[in-house]
Amino acid sequence: MVLAVAGCRGSNAAGTDAEGQPDSLVIVPVTRRDMVTNVESSGQIEPIRAIEIKSKASGAILRMPVETGDRVDAGALLAQIDTTEAATQVRQRSADLDYQRAQLTVMESRRQRAISLLAQGMMSQDQHDEAQLDYARVRSVFISTQAGLAEAQQRLAESTVRAPIQGTIIEKRVAQGQIISSATSGATEGTTLMKMADLSVVRVRALMGQADLGKIRPGQEATIVPDAYRNRKFTGQVIRIDPQSLTQRDVTYFPVLVDIDNREGLLLPGMDCAITISVSHLTNVLTVATDAVIALDEAEKIGPILKVPQDSIAAAIVKAGGKPTGVTKLPDTGEQVQTQRQRGVGRPVPSVGPIDAAIVFVVDTVRHHVRALPIRFGMQDWNLTEVRSGLRPGMTAVVPPSAAVVQQFEEFQRLMR
Fold this sequence. Notes:
Elements: E1 3-6, E2 24-29, E3 31-47, E4 50-54, E5 59-63, E6 71-72, E7 77-81, H1 84-120, H2 125-158, E8 160-162, E9 167-172, E10 179-180, E11 192-197, E12 201-209, H3 210-213, E13 221-226, E14 234-241, E15 246-248, E16 251-261, E17 272-289, H4 296-302, H5 310-319, H6 340-343, E18 357-364, E19 369-380, E20 384-389, E21 396-399, H7 403-416
Antiparallel strand pairs: 1-2, 2-21, 3-12, 3-17, 4-11, 5-7, 5-10, 6-9, 7-8, 9-11, 12-16, 13-14, 13-17, 14-16, 15-16, 17-20, 18-19, 19-20
Helix pairs in contact: 1-2, 4-5
């Protein structure tokens, strides 16, 4: 809840009263609530594994009983290529093998007889050796013919293209009667007949900015709303974050992959969808509006507009572990420095000081003025910040003016001087 509190004193043309106090304050309550932090993006449905179907046989397609969108079982017929040439080769190799088998039988008989005659001294060693060579030569031709028959039979079998997996035909590139080339010479050659994929589980590739990337972990639950089913939510799970970044309009993104159960078959490749990843869920935590959380190095600029004494702001910054203007030494906190924009929120955190420290300006209801309080914060999103220390329920925080207003105020003060 955001409230605007009107000032009680007269205001001047610059939008402030005679003493520089804003003529109205935007205030928000400090309350306990459940805090759900989500990261949102968009993406497209894509198959997890798409397979290109090619034929090892070349020739005309005699039969193709499938169409795009058909679901097929593993081993189902996808295409039948003309088998005339392959069948002829099988018959030829089979006849050659029968002839070579008969020859091998005869040569085996001659070899055995030569061994017997040599033992009886009725055949010379040279004649025996010649009989052994004849047998080896015929046996070699027999084995070669046997391999040729197996190869011809394989080509005949390859003329029938069957589904390697259970899945859906997602693209069909040829038609019945078309002549295709084989892919036996290389994986990148040959005619692609079709593409198929198992769509029982599909994937969304969502592009996430670096600001949100640190919050995402494999295993987190995601909600997907396709444009085609705006009133229905699908549940998925973050699988991984691709290490290769993408740059669009000078902004760096990383693909986050989310797998979705699609046993109903409603989600199709190419569908646009919105994706929400739940990165945290905190129960009954103290919160304040993120716009009310001020970086340590911005507090000194904003404080004067709110009529907060400079020494009071400096004390709050030092108490938070920061270094205000004029303070030469900052206690060593041993903590690194980063920006809230890197943490996924809009305002920068201190350039000097703990990364979870900030300033919140609150309205003192007793003394009726604004004062600066140092806080330590936890989880943040664009709307809320978890307050771990420094505030208590029931307090009223001030949403300070924007940077443009601060600049106008400083210009006004210079003009007054």
